[in-house]
């Protein structure tokens, strides 16, 4: 197996553009790639443009009638069929929508193929992680569910155990739905509580179909959760489940919208804590999955302050050249930011909270604490189904 990491990138992905007033601004993708290059990380990874996902690949997850509807809206946005979630406020139709969505999906599928075949140990597609798309419909800014397609391709290639860890602020509902009945896939989603955030799913009691009980894990966190609580919750649930499941491949989704500056959600997580979870996922892949790691992007709507820095950290970790938090950001990138957005860029790769610390679950818990109640709810719902102590 090659020890080299792959970064999946095709300039065409910046065409995933719902319009000037939509929060999913593709400038976040371009600025991330520019920051990766500014740090020279493109020399530490193999930059690969995979082919777009073809129709047979898309059908691993999506219904044929839905794919046809996306194609039709792509050719004529004015004729979008709202019954498929296209042409809505969240998912406006735009010319070329099918082609660019298939390109993003192709990068995640290509990443999965490279890791499974041993062409790379780690592969990153920060343009992916579009985890809300359902088999028969668009949802939550997501047209094709590249994360589900990557997992489905791994299963098609012969994988028998794939773990998916989603730390986006929103529930990874589309991925959970795609593998609800499949015990070969363990889906773990750490997200803001559905009482206060879209898509209003991801309750602890959602644990998988009867044929796959305990294969869906949901950790619903109280609004306002910050670094210490977020990291405590992650480490109280995720490592033990991964150790028990022992996946052949770890697929992770790193939506940056948990950040305290994100305009669409209500957690209070820093860039430094996001980086800590990225490091933890990398370590889990090496400890339990022979290093096989597919890392995806996701949400994130603070498109200058947060997203490029968070995902550049992710690329650096995958490449084996971690960027230390106090590192000064190259001036060339800050100038690029101002030229594109007329915003002032951050100066360092930290929010000033490094090193982040938290209380380990094993040291005890407080049953009256809202964060600990959330962790307990998840452990009690899922751990006994997997033969683990709650």
Describe the protein in words.
The structure is a single chain. This protein is α/β, with parallel strands linked by helices and 390 residues long. Helix content is 36%, strand content 10%. The chain has 11 helices and 8 strands. The protein has an 8-stranded parallel β-sheet, with helices on both faces. Helix 8 (271-288) links the parallel strand 7 (249-253) and strand 8 (293-296). Helix 1 (27-38) packs across helix 9 (307-319), helix 1 (27-38) runs antiparallel to helix 10 (331-341) and helix 7 (227-245) runs parallel beside helix 11 (370-382). The longest helix is centred in the N-terminal third of the chain and has 20 residues, at 97-116. The radius of gyration is 19 Å and the shape is globular. It starts with a strand and ends in an 8-residue tail after the last helix. The mean pLDDT is 98.
């Amino acid at each position: 197996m090659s020890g080299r990491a792959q970064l999946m990138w095709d300039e065409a992905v910046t065409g995933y553009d719902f319009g000037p007033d939509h929060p999913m601004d593709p400038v976040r993708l371009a600025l991330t790639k520019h920051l990766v290059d500014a740090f020279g990380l493109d020399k530490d990874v193999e930059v690969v443009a995979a082919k777009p996902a073809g129709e047979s690949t898309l059908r691993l997850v999506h219904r044929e009638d839905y794919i046809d509807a996306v194609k039709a809206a792509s050719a004529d946005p004015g004729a979008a069929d709202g019954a498929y979630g296209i042409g809505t406020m969240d998912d406006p139709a735009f010319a070329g929508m099918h082609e660019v969505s298939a390109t993003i999906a192709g990068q995640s599928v290509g990443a999965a193929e490279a890791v499974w075949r041993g062409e790379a140990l780690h592969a990153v597609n920060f343009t992916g992680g579009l985890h809300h798309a359902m088999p028969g419909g668009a949802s939550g800014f997501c047209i094709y569910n590249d994360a589900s397609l990557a997992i489905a391709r791994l299963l098609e290639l012969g994988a028998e155990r794939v773990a998916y860890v989603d730390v986006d602020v929103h529930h990874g509902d589309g991925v959970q739905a795609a593998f609800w009945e499949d015990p070969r896939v363990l889906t773990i989603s750490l997200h803001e509580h559905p009482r206060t955030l879209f898509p209003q799913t991801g309750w602890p009691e959602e644990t998988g179909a009867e044929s796959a009980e305990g294969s869906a894990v949901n950790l619903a966190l109280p609004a306002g959760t910050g670094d210490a609580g977020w990291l405590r919750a992650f480490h109280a649930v995720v490592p033990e489940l991964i150790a028990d499941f022992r996946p052949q491949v770890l697929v992770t989704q790193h939506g940056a919208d948990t950040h305290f500056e994100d305009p669409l959600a209500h957690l209070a997580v820093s860039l430094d804590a996001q980086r800590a979870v990225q490091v933890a996922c990398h370590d889990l892949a090496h400890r339990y999955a022979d290093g096989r790691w597919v890392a995806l992007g996701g949400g994130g709507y603070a498109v200058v302050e947060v997203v490029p820095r968070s995902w550049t950290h992710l690329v650096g970790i995958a490449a084996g050249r971690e960027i230390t938090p106090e590192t000064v950001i190259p001036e060339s990138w800050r100038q690029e930011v101002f030229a594109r957005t007329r915003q002032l860029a951050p100066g360092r790769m930290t929010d000033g909270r490094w090193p982040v610390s938290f209380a380990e679950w094993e040291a005890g818990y407080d049953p009256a604490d809202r964060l600990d109640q959330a962790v307990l709810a998840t452990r009690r719902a899922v751990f006994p189904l997997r033969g683990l102590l709650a």
